[in-house]
Design goal:
This protein has 375 residues and is α+β, with helices and mostly antiparallel strands. The protein has 9 helices and 19 strands. The protein has one domain: Anthranilate synthase (4-Layer Sandwich), CATH 3.60.120.10. The strands form 2 sheets. Strands 3, 4, 5, 10, 11, 12, 13, 14, 16 and 17 form a 10-stranded antiparallel beta sheet that branches. It is an enzyme of class 2 (transferase). Pfam families: Chorismate_bind. One of its GO terms (molecular function) is 4-amino-4-deoxychorismate synthase activity.
Length: 375
């Protein structure tokens, strides 16, 4: 694939706006075991450039460990890249068929997901794990313009982690609300999300309070917070890791979430690439204990996750970095659109309710698809 076809933007998470990259100088690909190749590419340029950054690496790491990064000697900053000329010249006006969203295909419908939840609970009862995040994928046979579809997604919600990136097989369109990692100087932060409640029915204050007082949701978030605190403890200076906020409620288009903020100061020898791969995969999308939960979900889920619950973002040559958790996202290939959704499973989980939670999380993404097809 020619680098001339590359285009993407990723959120700055704190500087305001987005970094926009076109036609990278080079693309670096590999698997988790080859992460030193990415580190070498970063170190070849490290120490150059101001903050906010003027060049660096931008790309994705899949849940399964496959990475793909463009190397940009210079990129642009924009507050709304979808309004600018590079976006407009790629956007098409061809209207898709059909005009209505057809039923999705999935290897994990209600029956299969409920069975998967109950099997996961057997692992919990046996003491293997305390929490595991299970996911399912939905697919549609559709040929779409990813640029126009992303505009429909933007109309549904505008979370801080929204982004748009070229992938190995197509495009990633993200409306993610979750910050995986942010590095500013030597300070590092992660904001895991756990806990979900529909926005319908109650007032905002009542819904937030209901979610914050839910013992199951708080227990999930506490376990994930401990996992992330441990991850940062492996790469941060002694006694610098702290929980800044716990169980803060955030409002989105169709639901509420709880999140924590965990912060620390990186050890002198830890660079951003090392920090990234030391913390992958994220605790909020695997479980606790993380390593065993990842093994169990790989046994229970019928197919690899791919980009879903991986991360996308940038590492600047100045050393700053920000990565978004790849959730609430659409993946567009040549004639396929897909999305994945998941739910955290504990011993107290109701399997049917967990399935309904995945449907709630898919709502805004499916609404964007319907709006796109309706024109």
């Amino acid at each position: 694939m020619s680098t001339e076809s590359e285009y993407g933007f990723t959120p700055l998470w704190g500087w305001g706006g987005f970094l926009v990259g076109e036609a990278p100088d080079e693309i670096v690909r590999g698997h988790r075991e080859e992460w030193e190749r990415l580190r070498t590419a970063y170190l070849a340029h490290a120490g150059s450039g101001p903050s906010p950054p003027s060049g660096g690496l931008m790309g994705t790491v899949s849940f399964d460990g496959d990475f793909r990064f463009g190397i940009y000697r210079r990129w642009q900053k924009s507050h709304a890249p979808w309004l600018e000329e590079p976006w407009r010249r790629r956007r098409t006006n061809v209207h898709p068929l059909p005009r209505r969203l057809p039923p999705a295909s999935s290897r994990t419908g209600r029956k299969e997901f409920v069975a998967m939840v109950r099997e996961a609970q057997e692992y919990i009862r046996s003491g293997d794990i305390y929490l595991v995040n299970l996911a399912r994928r939905l697919r549609w046979k559709l040929s779409v313009d990813p640029f126009r579809l992303w505009e429909m997604l933007l109309a549904q919600d505008r979370p801080a982690g929204r982004g748009f990136l070229r992938t190995e097989s197509g495009w990633l369109l993200s409306a993610s609300p979750e910050l995986f990692l942010r590095i500013r100087g030597r300070r590092i932060e992660t904001r895991p999300i756990k806990g979900t409640l529909s926005r319908s029915g109650e007032s905002g204050a009542d819904s937030a309070l209901t979610l914050q007082r839910n013992p199951k949701e708080r227990a999930e978030l506490l376990m994930v917070t401990d996992v992330e605190r441990n991850d940062l403890g492996q790469i941060c200076r002694f006694a610098t890791v702290r929980v800044g906020r716990f169980a803060a409620a955030t409002r989105h288009a169709h639901l509420w979430h709880l999140h924590s903020s965990i912060e620390g100061v990186l050890r002198p020898e830890i660079d951003p690439v090392t920090a990234l791969f030391a913390c992958l995969p994220g605790g909020s999308i695997t479980g606790a204990p993380k390593r065993r939960a990842a093994e169990i979900l790989s046994l229970l889920e019928p197919e690899p996750r791919g980009l879903y619950t991986g991360v996308f973002g940038y590492i600047s040559f100045s050393g700053d970095a920000a990565f978004t958790m790849t959730i609430r996202s659409l993946e567009v290939a040549s004639e396929t659109v897909s999305l994945s959704v998941g739910s955290g499973i504990t011993i107290d989980s109701n399997a049917e309710a967990e399935y309904e939670e995945t449907c709630l999380k898919a709502k805004a993404l499916e609404k964007a698809l319907r709006a796109y097809l309706a024109g």
